[in-house]
Amino acid sequence: MWPWTVTVLLVPSFISSEILFLLLQVMTRGCLITEARYLQISEWNISLIHSSRPTIYSECVTQIYENTYFQGGDLSTVFTPSANYCQIVCTYHPTCLLFTYLPVTWTKDPAKRFSCYLKDSDTEMLPKVDMEGAVSGHSLKQCNIKISACSPDVHIGLDMEGENYDVTVAESYQQCQKRCTNDDHCHFFTYASKTFHNASFREKCFLKHTRLGTPTSIRVLDEVVSGFSLKPCQLSEIDCKMDLFEHQEFSGMNVTSFFTPDTSVCQTICTYFPNCLFFTFFTKEWQIASQRNLCLLMTSTSGTPEALTLRENAISGFGLLNCRRYFPACNSRTYVHMNFLGDELNVTYTKGHKACQQVCTDMIRCQFFTYFPLQDSCNEERKCECHLRMSSNGSPVEIKHGPGRISGYSLRLCKKKASTVCMQHSSRTIRIVGGTDSSPGEWPWQVSLHVKLFRRRHHCGGSIISNQWILTAAHCFMSRQNPNIWRVYAGILKQSEIKEDTPFFKVEEIIIHPRYTYAQTGYDIALLKLDKPMNFTDLQLPICLPSKEEANILYTDCWVIGWGYRKERGLVEDILQKVTVPLMSKEECQARYRKRRLDDNVICAGYDEGGRDACKGDSGGPLSCKHEEVWYLVGITSWGEGCARPRQPGVYTKVVDYLDWILEKTT
Q1: Can you give the three-state secondary structure of 194-205, one letter per residue?
Q2: pLDDT, position 118
């Protein structure tokens, strides 16, 4: 649509890139520089400049700039206790692309300490100014990582100020933070310790909220601890209200309103918008034309609607921040016969609305789009107009209904880590059948690890987590750390089917956790790197690793599988066995093993009456749990007292606690 120009400049090498950038902005007279490359030849820099209209395609920038201030582009200022939280605020702000933060060490103007300056720029660049103590960085909107608003850190010696709406006595800051997490209105808290200078405030827990969800100011104060609610970490114990109420209008104190295409988007906005507890959405059939597709965000003192009114074409519901599962702040659906109106960033041509959505996702400022698959809007290549748009609040300023248009949102906050965390085919449903024998392809991530000492035999289980990595238990390799003696068999059901000509993988490398000594002291985890990549089939597929944001899911459908013994003095089973087991709290498990101190990074499962459990030969195999049609590797079979003894649950390595180590070693 827009012509591109390439300019070649010869510039002395002593001219810095920041100064050169400002010169180029003047020279291009408002056209935006979407790409600038600097090549040094002798004493000259050659600058290749690609310029266009105000549209820029961006990649993730994670660099933090110390002693640097981004000049200009100011959107607003908030107060945050750290640069990390400033970056979180910028990431969730609809238009913030850059930020500058002034930490506690800022001395030039103490009143500006903890200021978080949210900034925007057409080019995702602003001039950098040297400023001692300032910290600057970028929004993570474009990063291929799972974005989370969770901030578990506490801040010692800082008082985060807001409206103190509830003051109670608490024994510790942990207890205070838990109260904040389990209170609908609480955004953050401050706890005064037992040595606080004012005796009347000692051991007091101050629950606070503000209009924006961030402190109105922050001050240094001895003997206090401040922190945020852990509701975004999925740690709230308040009821998760996911039900929608059709033909019901909720009443409450209005927070704000947006135009949205459906209740799902309205509910997502309510989930992440400060102070929104519930909402009402008016459908396209709503009798008042100007209110069609309107999403009303509301709150109340009680936390529940003040009234419910029967209203045709209205749908109401609650925000999902209290739920113990992660809801991304994005929407991937597209909407037929809808035109999302907003500020026009660019019009390009794409083949299909999915391609249009991807262009919007890749463009740094695009928030939503409308695709025009109409004959008069398409070119000779059968590519049609893709309108890329934005607004100040991230939502359409109006939604028009009419034939032909297809609209949707950028997927930038939907992204997850492109890593070994989850490569499972999300559309696949695993068949569960009765009995103890498994079926072919029922557990496609299970592998059999064979070792050759005097003869080759099954020794341990393991789980496929990517095409070249197996996750298993460290204790399987005691005195057996030579990769050459191991074989990995995938996609098998019966041990008797393994012959000399059965395909297998050699082990290239064995990585045992550096802190492992023996199973009962924890860190019972190991990685095997295969000698070649694995081709995925219906019989061999990876299992997902639970992410940190989903660490607190309450799994109710968990299975242990393996070829291990059925009783303490038995033999390896021929057919892969399975048994469903309930998970057990750490406190319950510790009570069963009073003579041992359980490591924090384990999870227990089993029945009080015994009879069903993992046993010898199952070591290293998966504790697989199903949640929302996806299977997760929650645990690795580690140890237990005997096999299936009453009140002696199985102990499993808690995989989520080792996620960073796994990713470090496998990527």
Answers
A1: CCCCCHHHCCEE
A2: 98
Claim to verify: residue 110 and residue 30 sit in the same structural domain? no
Q: Annotate 559-582 with b (16+ C-beta within 10 A) or e (fewer).
A: bbbbbbbeeeeeebbeebbbbebe
Q: Which of 20-29, 89-98, 279-288, 469-478 has the lowest mean pLDDT?
A: 20-29
47-80: b or e for each residue (b if 16 or more CB lie within 10 Å)?
bebebbbebbebeebeeebeebbbbebebeebbb
Looking at the domain assignment, is residue 461 inside a domain? yes
Task: Tell me which of 318, 352, 374 is where a domain ends.
Answer: 318
Over residues 568-588, the mean pLDDT reads: 80
What pLDDT score does 610 carry? 57
Look at residue 179 and tell me if it is in a domain.
yes
Domain edge (last residue) among 189, 208, 233: 233
Known catalytic residues? 475, 524, 619
Alpha-carbon distances, residue 199 vs 194, 204, 220, 622 (angstroms): 8, 10, 18, 53
Q: Are 462 and 486 in contact (CB under 8 A)?
A: no
Has residue 421 been placed in a domain? no
358 and 291 together in one domain: no
624 in the same domain as 538: yes
The token pair that represents 120 in the structure block? 């925007």
Which CATH number does the domain housing residue 481 bear? 2.40.10.10
Same domain, 612 and 589: yes
Residues 516 and 652 in one domain: yes
Indicate whether 368 and 301 sit together in one domain: no
Residue in the structure block whose two tokens are 């947006």: 258
Mean pLDDT across 544-562: 82
Q: Are 269 and 349 members of one domain?
A: no
Instruction: Kindly report which listed range (23-32, 122-131, 631-640) carries the lowest average pLDDT score.
Output: 23-32
The length of the chain in residues reads 667
CATH of the domain at 260: 3.50.4.10
Give CA 163 to chain center in angstroms: 30
| Residue 196 near residue 176 (C-beta atoms within 8 A) | no
Task: Output 593 or 395, whichever has higher pLDDT.
Answer: 395
d(CA 60, CA 603): 36
For the chain, percent of residues with pLDDT exceeding 90: 58
Map residue 34 onto helix, strand or coil.
strand
Range of the domain at 534: 446-666
Number of domains in the chain: 6
Mean pLDDT of the 248-259 span: 97
Q: Which residues of 347-369 are buried (b: 16+ CB within 10 A; e: fewer)?
A: bbbbeebebbbbbbbbbbbbbbb
| 655: helix, strand or coil | helix
Amino acid 627: pLDDT: 81
Residue 642: what pLDDT?
A: 56
Averaged pLDDT score across all residues of the chain: 85
Lowest mean pLDDT: which of 163-177, 310-324, 496-510, 536-550?
Answer: 536-550
Res 420: pLDDT? 42
Residue 60 resides in a domain: no
Question: In angstroms, how far is the first alpha carbon of the chain from the final one?
Answer: 39
Q: Give mean pLDDT, residues 531-556.
A: 83
pTM summary value: 0.62
